[in-house]
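Each field is listed here:
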Amino acid sequence: MKLLKWIGSSRKDLKKFPKKVQDIMGFALKRAQEGKNYKNTKRLKGIKAIEIIERDKSETYRAVYTTEMKNIICVLHVFQKKSKRGIKTPIQEINLIKQRLKEIKKLKQVGKR
């Protein structure tokens, strides 16, 4: 099973979600650790990351992770989608995901030395 690494405030942010959503996100991440898929996931276009999407009542919650590091699932970002229009991930969230993915790539390079 792959290790799980939380990047930035992602773990703290997940703790702010409703308990039911936390449990589902935890299950989805465990599936990822086992190398399996969870039903409510999609690949983010142009980014080497996978987004878990979960709805609770009228709210939408998302967690984004990558498998860029060997044997490690890195949770890049966890957030509540605020926009009621469309299904696209908001640009400010994409920018933060990209920034954290760059941090992962730097760690990956350091590990090769």
Q: What stands out?
A: The chain has one domain: 3-112.
